[in-house]
Design brief:
By secondary structure, this protein is mainly α. The protein has one domain (8-222). The chain is built from nine helices and four strands, in the order ααββαααβαβααα. Strands 1-2 form a two-stranded antiparallel sheet. Strands 3-4 form a two-stranded parallel sheet. The relative contact order is 0.13.
């Protein structure tokens, strides 16, 4: 499989924009960050921000920062209750408005992430990717991405990965700008999200038929 080559925009301009935008956003949104932090502490407890290991650029592991959206409720044996039980109405609201992801601006400023790119998924998924899907790690993961404005978690894993790889192959300032504006529209519409009763998207267990990915990728390309 052909190695991904960074363009001038991707290597220099995109990173500069990430620094400027994330730093500005952290300053401008600091009152909102503070308010959300206080509400999370009161309604869900501490820690207010949790760090989770995620694979980033070239599968390098980093600590993803997010506002917590679930309680630590446990059963009689001390085991954590299912996600759907621990996810409160307040937590659902945080996720629906994407406010839980605001701390990721710090990851962007540090260089772990980019404003636009494939979403960073779980480390345990790494061994499950096929060669096609692994290409999503040829760029920095993003706060939002091409898959998020084309279905978010309401589409299949195979479709998400196809959109991720399409982004890697077509990355440009024009495409990033398009994704940014579409993201704003998606957030305000609260669209492309699974049922409000769902705590998280169904876990990825591997792609059984790689041809499905290739076929979907080709269909996306043919519609350009």
């Amino acid at each position: 499989m052909q190695k991904h080559k960074q363009t001038f925009y991707e290597k220099y301009v995109k990173r500069l924009l990430d620094i400027i935008i994330s730093l500005t956003a952290l300053i401008v949104l600091s009152p909102i960050l503070l308010i959300v932090a206080v509400l999370v502490r009161v309604k869900l407890g501490s820690p207010v921000i949790f760090h989770q290991q995620r694979p980033g650029y070239h599968e390098k592991i980093f600590g993803l920062c997010k506002f917590r959206s679930m309680t630590d409720a446990r059963d009689q044996n001390g085991e954590l209750l299912p996600d759907e039980v621990r996810l409160t109405k307040f937590g659902k609201a945080l996720r629906a408005t994407s406010l839980d992801e605001l701390p990721e601006l710090w990851n962007i400023l540090k260089g772990d992430m980019s404003l636009i790119g494939p979403r960073p998924l779980l480390v345990k998924y790494l061994p499950l990717y096929n060669g096609f899907q692994k290409q999503r790690h040829d760029v920095r993961p993003g706060l939002t991405g091409w898959a998020q404005v084309n279905g978010r978690n309401a589409i299949s894993w195979e479709q998400r990965f196809a959109y991720d790889v399409e982004y890697v192959k077509k990355i440009s300032f024009k495409m990033d700008l398009k994704i940014l504006f579409q993201t704003v529209a998606v957030v305000f519409r609260h669209s492309d999200i699974n049922s409000a009763t769902d705590a998280t998207m169904e876990a990825f267990t591997g792609t059984k038929m790689e041809d499905n990915v290739k076929r979907f990728s080709k269909s996306v390309k043919d519609t350009d």
